[in-house]
Amino acid sequence: MNLRDRYDAATAGIEAPFAVVDLAAFRANAAGLVRRAAGKPIRVASKSVRCRALLADVLAMDGFAGIMAFTLPEALWLAGEGVSDDILVAYPTTDRTALAALAADPAAARAVTLMVDCREHLDLIEAAAGDRPVRVCVDVDASYRPLGGRVRIGALRSPLRTPADVAAFAEDVLKRPSLRLVGLMAYEAQIAGVGDVPPGRPARGRMIRAMQQRSRTELARRRAAIVRAVRGLTDLEFVNGGGTGSVETTAAERAVTEVAAGSGLYQPHLFDQYSNFAGRPAALFALPVARRPAPGVATCLGGGYLASGPADAVRLPQPYLPTGLSYDPNEGAGEVQTPLLGRSADLLSVGDRVWFRHTKAGELCERFAALHLIDGDEVVRTVPTYRGEGKTFL
Ligand SMILES: Cc1ncc(COP(=O)(O)O)c(C=O)c1O
């Protein structure tokens, strides 16, 4: 049976729209990430999964350890539900209520680590925690700054960049009695999050590969020097780096003790643009064909699930199965309906499904309350997404 027939048969009793995860693809993708990490543990990026049951499944696999969460309320929830006792909140928090809850709960305070990169973050945590212990990790700018720093390639995150910057900030952390400095993180978005084989743009691909090679070399040296400087001041439990697109090269750095990854589990279509790995599409959503306005057109109900980021065409979901469908340029993926053009449209009848891939990973789960988990040719389990549990953290 081909993939489309198998998915259609497995979900025949479910009314579209709905979302699924193909567990065989999901497990193969997880195994691929673990192979690429070559023995270093992978901290699973929860923003790219947004489903408690699947996070728990991933953490049960060899090679994965700990969660990289995206908000403190999320981390408190995951810790309280016993999903993990090692949760790094990857982005700074200004949520005083959640900080107070963290400080008041010794088990949560043992499990959760907060991200900091400036004095204001430290002041906020101290004000909430008093003299109760809170674990913190220092975020380091991993962007690439060629031409004497005049150009910045990468994400705008931490202002801390040099070994001296980070060591001086670490000293400030260490002076504050309630704060426990346990880790460093440096996420190289310009490598991990930028595919080096953009479709139909070979010249751009060559430029990206050259930039990434130089950035990798620069960052490996700088990261090692930063880790040495901070380890001269205090012990660290972990040094985190990387993401789905950079697992093997980040893990190869001696200074890095663990890598982060999440998107590669669902393998959304943005992650098809990498030369170093090829995952299998694991998370899909199905829309019903609701009308046939004209020959060569099949119009689906819903579908406007655009991804975050710079507003370009790649933010649109990808019509996946049947193959050979494309968007109407005037309508794109619409709020209530999505016309699809192409030869396959004439093979679709009202009531058939079209299968799509989201551009990014976890954002799909903000659109659906449940994921139907397909194993072989049947749905073996239906599990709530974060949204399905009433949790919309971002
Ligand atoms: C700090 C950090 N680490 C790692 C990642 C990589 O996550 P993924 O593997 O889902 O791309 C991200 C993604 O934005 C991130 O912000």
UniProtKB/TrEMBL annotation:
GO biological process, one term: D-serine catabolic process
Stored Pfam families: Ala_racemase_N
Record InterPro entries: Ala_racemase_N, D-amino_acid_metab_enzyme, PLP-binding_barrel
Single GO molecular function: D-serine ammonia-lyase activity
Signal peptide extent: none
Top-rank taxon, per record: Bacteria
Domain Alanine racemase N-terminal: 21-266
Full protein name: Amino acid deaminase/aldolase
Species per Swiss-Prot/TrEMBL record: Actinomadura chibensis
